[in-house]
Amino acid sequence: MPGSNGKLREISRRTALGALGAGIVGTTVASWPRLTGMDIPGRGDNSLSIAILGTAADAAARQKVVDAFAKVHPDIKVKVQAIQAVDWKDFFTKILTMVAAGTPPDVVYVATEGAQLFAEKLAHPLDEYLRRDAAHMKEYFADVHPSLVEAFMYKGSLFQLPIDWNAANMYYNTKALQQAGLERPADDWNHLDFRSTLAAMRKARPSDFTPYYWTNRLFGGVVPWLYANDTSFLKETKSTGGRWLWDSFYANDPTRGMRSGGYQWLEPNANDPKVFESFDFLRGLVKDGLGVRPEEGGGNSLVGLFASNRIGTTPAGGYWVQGLSEAGMKQDDYDVQFFPKWRTQRHQFGTAGYAIMKTAKDKDAAWEWVKFSSSLEAMKIVFPTPNTTPARRSMVNEQLYAGKGPRHWKVFYDTLDRFPSTGPIPAPPQQAAVETALMKNVSLAVSGDERQLKSALDSLQRDLEFALRRQP
Predict the structure, then answer these.
(1) Which of 168, 152, 177, 141 is CA-nearest to residue 411?
(2) pLDDT at residue 83 greater than cutoff 50
(3) CB-count burial class (<10 Å; 0-12, 13-18, 19+) for 130
(4) Bridge-based pairing state of the strands 348-356 and 107-111
(5) Which of 332, 328, 334 is CA-nearest to residue 312?
(6) How confident is the model at residue 419, as a pLDDT?
């Protein structure tokens, strides 16, 4: 995506989700002055204050949604605050600072990374409002896959309505694939097929080319490979409860029986042999020159590298389409496929939506904002371009991707429909400490021999044990 300096910048999932409510993907900066009560739009009057991750331009672009909301609720004043941050972790830290200062916003746009932190400490459950407005909300739930909704369940209650989401699908450069003499991968290709694809790409392009590019983070890093191999670095369980929602809004859904009161990640799982196996696979890709070490490059120039035919494959979601189009890629220059199968073909996703703060001065008004923001009218305003994947199935259509690609854009929502056990990023309330522990050990794990890999996973297990003991 062209920046003010003319260089291409990476569109990260976190930045994209943070700015998505404005319909604009904006880069964020690290610096941010000390927050005071005067920094919160609406603080000191009766306005509903909405906090999003983004820039002033993102807040301004949100005005179209605010104006539409005002026509329906002229009695509720809304002001949007865009908070600049490096990533979601930094954004949540700033929200916590505002809470500690006694100047919290009323509503916050929260991604999966912070959903359980907010549910545990900061957010008000939506259960009472959903029961009250069930007739009105049935249309929304009929258009949204239950996997996305379950990601925002916590201990039997629902805390957010999914507005957008992205799975870790596999993007590939069609020219690189053709140069390797290969056709489009099959829907059910597996990890060994993937490795063979990378080897063929490397043979066709022996220099100045990376067959597989991946980053060291929760989304699109090692976690998709762990999920595909039927494991994770945290033990995944589910809470009881939630029948009130599933029986009401998903009574006819064939996956209703597998739904729960929410995900739980209570114990580390880095010593699982399947975790070792997954890391060892990635270690082999790095060792054989088929994949980059995840710390290299940091992803800052990824859009430009991919657009210039220097990267063969990389995991990403629908948020990439608009950026690749603006980088000059045509509809047939790249495509997307399901993440390769291993023991399963379960995918990883992240989603985002509004959370009502426990401290909101008017929770009923806050609910009206959340409810309106989930409407088809509001979401069409928010998502005029494919810079993310709308949570509403009906909006992921040919019109959204017309002239921009990829050809197989149906893969995005089909990920949920074809693989309904697809799950969210493993993000307990201690997500910040957990991600730090993961990132600390990943590069070491895939950069040496098997002994070094074993040592790194032992270190990860210890670090996760410590992280999960911390208070969120």
Answers:
(1) 168
(2) yes
(3) buried
(4) antiparallel
(5) 334
(6) 98
- The answer, yes or no, to whether residue 18 has pLDDT greater than 50, is no
Task: Please compute Rg for the chain using Cα positions.
Answer: 21
Q: Name the E strands within 28-158.
A: 48-53, 78-83, 107-111, 153-154, 157-158
Give bridge partners of residue 390 from the DSSP assignment: 164
Contact status, residue 312 vs residue 201, Cβ threshold 8 Å: yes
Q: Output the pLDDT for position 107.
A: 98
Question: What is the Cα 243 distance to its own chain's centre?
Answer: 26
H-only helix segments in 374-410: 376-382, 398-401
Q: Residue 147 has which token pair?
A: 């996997």
Contact 48, 80 (CB under 8 A): no
User: Residue 62 CB: number of other CB atoms within 10 A?
Assistant: 24
For 56-113, strand residue ranges (E) read: 78-83, 107-111
- Report how far Cα 227 is from the mean position of its chain's Cα atoms: 15
User: Cα–Cα distances in Å, from 207 out to 172, 288, 322, 387?
Assistant: 18, 13, 29, 31
Paired residues of 170 in beta bridges = 315, 337
The phi, psi pair for 167, rounded to 5°, reads: -95, 160
Question: Which long-range contacts does 432-435 make (Cβ < 8 Å, 24+ apart)?
Answer: 432/89, 432/92, 432/93, 432/117, 433/466, 433/467, 433/468, 433/470, 434/234, 434/265, 434/464, 434/467, 434/468, 435/89, 435/113, 435/217, 435/218
pTM for this model (two decimals):
0.91
Residue 124 has pLDDT above 60, yes or no: yes
Show Cβ contacts of residue 75 under 8 Å, excluding neighbours closer than 6 positions.
none
Q: Does an H or E element contain 194, and which?
A: helix 191-204
Rounded Cα–Cα distance for residues 220 and 77 (Å): 39
DSSP-derived 3-state class of residue 401: helix
In DSSP terms, 265 is beta-bridged to 236
**Distance in angstroms (rounded) separating the CA atoms of residues 314 and 291:** 10
Give the model's pLDDT for residue 39: 44
